[in-house]
Specification:
Layout: E1 3-4, H1 7-23, E2 30-36, H2 40-56, E3 59-65, H3 71-82, E4 89-92, H4 104-108, H5 122-129, H6 143-154, E5 163-167, H7 174-183, E6 187-191, H8 198-202, E7 207-210, E8 228-231, E9 235-237, E10 240-242, H9 247-250, E11 256-257, H10 264-284
Parallel strand pairs: 1-11, 2-3, 2-4, 5-6, 5-7, 7-8, 8-11
Antiparallel strand pairs: 9-10
Helix pairs in contact: 1-10, 2-10, 6-7, 6-10
Length: 287
């Protein structure tokens, strides 16, 4: 039976460190989350983020918008938040629904890079693409991808020299996660909707990451014995939360696996809390 990579345990450790840092601050960091529509997964993530903020002492607010909202309205609000000295972090909950989906990048780029606590602004992407985060601890890294790396490191899963397959090539998870694995000296292969014979690729991998958003898409036939499996999926199936991985079958062949819920999700929230503190430090530091 595979070892469970429990994100809740590691997430708590990260949040405890952030909480101790916050105790000494006279002005607490402020986070604003913009949520469009009523997607169940997005609502769950936003609620978890708000709960984490309350637990560790970050001021937070959630701005909710109907699915019919125009991009101009959201950008106008972000521009207000950019110049608000009480707000240190701005997060646009992704993916955006409906017609707004095609404007995600435009809206993301309207966020001040210093307040981009999801680490998805092109300037922040550039900072970690050139490995600047290795010398600057305040660089804002994408929450979910970096959460995956931190989870593996916490459980002493070796990455250097390993063959890693990432199923999914989104700007939110797949692409930045691949770059972080490269920075850790792994050999990275991407699979996606146009990839032929995915199983022939994944069954050669030491580490398999699924981020495709298809319930129980990955079963034991995709995984070689002893591989590490990271499930980034967050899907609802008959009102139950499930991942991209068929946990029961895969856990019988993998050496380690993340559960859903309780795996990558808590790590995403913990890295967000860490990023809010980093953003605060970048904005309030004196040179």
């Amino acid at each position: 039976m595979a070892q469970i990579l429990d994100g809740r345990i590691i997430s708590k450790q990260i949040k405890d460190v952030v909480r101790r840092e916050l105790v000494s601050l006279h002005v607490k960091p402020g986070l604003t989350v913009l949520l469009v529509g009523l997607d169940p997964a997005s609502q769950t993530y936003v609620e978890n983020k708000a709960k984490a903020c309350r637990e560790i002492g970050i001021r937070s607010e959630i701005l909710r918008y109907p699915i019919t909202t125009k991009k101009e309205e959201i950008i106008a609000k972000i521009e207000e938040l950019n110049i608000d000295p009480q707000i240190h972090g701005i997060l646009l909950q992704l993916p955006l629904p409906g017609d707004l989906h095609s404007f995600e990048q435009d809206i993301l780029e309207s966020i001040d890079p210093e307040k981009d606590v999801d680490g998805l602004h092109p300037i922040n992407i550039g900072r970690f693409m050139n490995n600047k985060y290795l010398s600057d601890a305040t660089v804002l890294l994408p929450c979910t991808p970096y959460g995956v790396i931190r989870l593996l490191q916490a459980y002493n899963v070796s990455i250097a020299g390993k063959d890693v397959v990432i199923i999914g090539r989104s700007n939110l998870v797949g692409k930045p996660l691949g770059m972080l694995f490269l920075a850790e000296n792994a050999t990275v292969t991407f699979c996606h909707s146009k990839t032929l014979n995915i199983k022939t690729i994944t069954t050669q991998a030491d580490i398999v990451v699924s981020a495709v958003g298809r319930p129980k898409f990955i079963d034991a036939t995709y995984i070689k014995k002893g591989a590490v499996v990271i499930d980034v999926g967050f899907n609802y199936e008959e009102k139950a939360l499930v991942g991209d991985v068929d946990f029961e079958s895969v856990s019988n062949v993998a050496s380690a696996i993340t559960p859903v819920p309780g795996g990558v999700g808590p790590m995403t929230v913990a890295i967000l809390m860490e990023n809010v503190l980093k953003a605060y430090q970048r904005q309030t530091s004196t040179t």
